[in-house]
Design goal:
Blueprint (H helix, E strand, L loop, with lengths): L3 E6 L14 H18 L1 H7 L3 E12 L8 E12 L2 E12 L2 E18 L2 E4 L4 H8 L4
Helix pairs in contact: 1-2
Length: 140
């Protein structure tokens, strides 16, 4: 299965007093991975976001298997789980990169709804074709 990959190096600011990565950062990284995917594979969507399109996160989850620490290298792999009407569900895997190989440290899922801002309300809208085409290459 092909996955979009975002490489991240953990910084001190992402850790807590104990020294491990604070759990909420994994969700932040999902968002960062999603943004980099748009930049790399559907840049026209970025312009649409400034013209009323909204990708609204409606559900997010993360399961943790092992701790990450400052300066760990982690690759976040994102795949399309489902594209249904105006909803996009993505799967995320977090892999620590070490000299001896990779270790799965967490898994996550995120669902976003495609919406359009119209005056004072937000209404559902179809997933834009360029985004749909870009995502299909990464279907799980």
């Amino acid at each position: 299965m092909k996955a979009y990959e975002y490489l991240h190096i953990v910084s001190f600011e992402e850790t807590n007093l104990v020294g491990n990565v604070y759990y909420a950062n994994y969700v932040r990284w999902q968002g960062r991975c999603r943004e980099m995917f748009l930049k790399d594979h559907a840049p026209e969507i970025i312009k649409e976001l400034s013209q009323g399109l909204a990708l609204v996160t409606v559900r997010v989850s993360c399961e943790y298997y092992s701790e990450l620490f400052a300066f760990d290298q982690v690759v976040i792999r994102m795949r399309l789980k489902e594209l249904l009407q105006n909803r996009i569900t993505m799967l995320f895997e977090y892999w620590r990169i070490r000299d001896e190989g990779e270790e799965l440290v967490a898994k996550g899922e995120q669902q976003a709804a495609c919406m359009r801002r119209e005056e004072e309300k937000t209404v559902p809208t179809a997933v834009p074709i360029p985004l749909k085409e870009a995502l299909e290459c990464y279907r799980a």
